[in-house]
């Protein structure tokens, strides 16, 4: 990526006037809205079919499993393939996978195994798409605008997080159980059209002759491991994801204990989305005004302090306000660490390094989801909250004591 000169910084177009970025961004916002609309329905549907929180948790765990199995080879392949073509294929395939759920409902043949299969397939396709999209961002946004672009991405995703759960639970209750999945499938059609209209080249830039896929994977993982701040942020993100992946099911079960119906549970997640919008709006300013260490350590510490409050929150509004605070800080954390990381990575290594980062970052997500379901089923919500709160506090202490995080240097574009 070419670093803009000091004289050209003031002439950078606002992101909303940059056609390529806006196409990439808008398509992702629409598909994220679709994913949020159907995402909250998966556990509700499995709970309705089985009555088991443990079985509901497996849908989340299976969706994340492909990250552990595919991240490294997919990252190496993305650096060889045309990233635009990968994103197009993934949109089409994911739309078809999601559409199979309401089709099975209409035919009267929907079983939990089908939902699990869709979760695995969609998770695998998401690995390809997410790594390709992440590697494409520096092709359409100058380095100086990466924090701002990341914040705008987070704001769009947060807005989808507000509308999606409410829309999904309303469709589920008022229109029909299959309609949230139909909406999700339609969102992939819109996303594919946005990607198809991109004019930029996302093909590899004169790749060197590579000896093997294994060597390519080793090069990306090796680069990450020798950049200590990137490596340590992957480990911290692994810990935060371990807790974050458990929170949705925990909120659903806790909400049901407090007498909430599906629409009120949707309200809880929508309040979380409101918090995420606020966090995304301030994320760019936080990245500019605070040091890397202050932003990362502060956001993790406050999130850790919020988790125990799930036990004292009264009703859906209380749960939603606590969740909103956690979600306010999540995009702040993501804007800071993502824009810092992506600015460091050479273009030819974007796919491999980001896939290596994601492999580490998502390593414990299946464990977090299944552990949450098992604890809820056998020990109840109080013990479950206590376990995840204790882990989050330990993680916040570890991040605060990490010298690489505390003293991370400003990048040239940030100075």
What this model shows, in words?
The longest helix has 30 residues, at about 145-175. The protein is globular and about 55 Å long. Helices cover about 80% and strands about 0% of the residues. The protein has a single domain, classed as MFS general substrate transporter like domains (Growth Hormone, Chain: A, Up-down Bundle), CATH 1.20.1250. The chain has about 425 residues and is an all-alpha fold. Helix 4 (about 55-80) packs across helix 9 (about 215-225), helix 6 (about 110-140) packs across helix 15 (about 350-360) and helix 11 runs parallel beside helix 16 (about 365-380). It contains 18 helices and no strands.
Largest beta-sheet characterization: none
CATH homologous superfamily annotation: MFS general substrate transporter like domains
SS-derived structural category: mainly alpha
The end-to-end distance, rounded to whole angstroms, is 18 Å
Stated plainly, the CATH topology is called Growth Hormone, Chain: A
Element string (H = helix, E = strand): HHHHHHHHHHHHHHHHHH
Low-confidence stretches: 1-10
Number of helices: 18
How would you state the average pLDDT, rounded? 86
Tell me the radius of gyration.
21 Å
| SS elements, strand count | 0
Structure summarized in a few sentences:
This protein has helices spanning 6-9, 19-39, 41-50, 53-78, 83-107, 112-140, 146-175, 179-196, 213-226, 228-244, 247-257, 262-289, 292-306, 315-344, 350-361, 365-379, 381-401, 403-406. It is mostly helical and 415 residues long.
Which secondary structure elements does this structure contain, and how are they paired or packed?
Blueprint lengths: L5 H4 L9 H21 L1 H10 L2 H26 L4 H25 L4 H29 L5 H30 L3 H18 L16 H14 L1 H17 L2 H11 L4 H28 L2 H15 L8 H30 L5 H12 L3 H15 L1 H21 L1 H4 L9
């Amino acid at each position: 990526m070419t670093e803009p000169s000091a004289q050209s910084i003031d002439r950078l177009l606002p992101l909303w006037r940059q056609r390529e970025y806006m196409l990439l961004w808008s398509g992702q916002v629409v598909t994220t809205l679709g994913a949020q609309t159907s995402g909250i329905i998966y556990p509700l549907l499995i709970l309705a079919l089985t009555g088991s929180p443990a079985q509901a948790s497996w849908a989340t765990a299976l969706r994340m499993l492909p990250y552990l199995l595919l991240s490294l080879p997919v990252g190496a392949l993305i650096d060889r393939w045309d990233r635009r073509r990968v994103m197009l294929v993934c949109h089409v395939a994911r739309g078809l996978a999601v559409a199979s759920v309401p089709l099975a409902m209409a035919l009267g043949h929907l079983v939990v195994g089908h939902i699990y299969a869709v979760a695995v397939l969609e998770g695998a396709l998401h690995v390809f798409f997410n790594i390709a999209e992440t590697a494409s961002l520096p092709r359409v946004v100058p380095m100086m605008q990466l924090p701002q672009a990341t914040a705008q991405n987070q704001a769009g995703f947060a807005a989808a997080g507000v509308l999606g759960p409410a829309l999904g639970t309303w469709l589920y209750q008022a229109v029909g159980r299959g309609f949230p999945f139909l909406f999700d499938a339609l969102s992939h059609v819109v996303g594919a059209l946005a990607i198809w209209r991109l004019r930029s080249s996302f093909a590899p830039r004169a790749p060197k002759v590579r000896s093997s896929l294994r060597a390519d994977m080793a090069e990306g993982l090796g680069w990450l491991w020798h950049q200590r701040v990137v490596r340590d942020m992957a480990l911290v993100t692994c810990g935060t994801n371990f807790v974050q992946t458990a929170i949705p099911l925990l909120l659903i079960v806790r909400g049901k204990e407090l007498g909430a119906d599906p629409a009120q549970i949707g309200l809880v997640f929508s309040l979380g989305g409101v918090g995420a919008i606020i966090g995304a709006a301030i994320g760019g300013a936080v990245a500019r005004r605070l040091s890397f260490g202050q932003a990362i350590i502060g956001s993790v510490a406050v999130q850790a302090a919020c988790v125990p409050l799930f036990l004292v929150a009264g009703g859906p509004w209380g749960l939603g306000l606590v969740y909103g605070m956690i979600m306010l800080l999540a995009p702040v954390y993501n804007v800071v660490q993502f824009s810092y990381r992506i600015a460091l990575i050479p273009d030819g290594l974007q796919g491999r390094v980001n896939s290596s980062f994601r492999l580490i970052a998502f390593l414990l997500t299946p464990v977090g989801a299944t552990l949450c379901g098992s604890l809820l089923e056998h020990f109840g919500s109080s013990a479950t909250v206590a376990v995840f709160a204790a882990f989050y506090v330990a993680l916040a202490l570890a991040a605060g004591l990490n010298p690489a995080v505390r003293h991370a240097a400003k990048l040239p574009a940030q100075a």
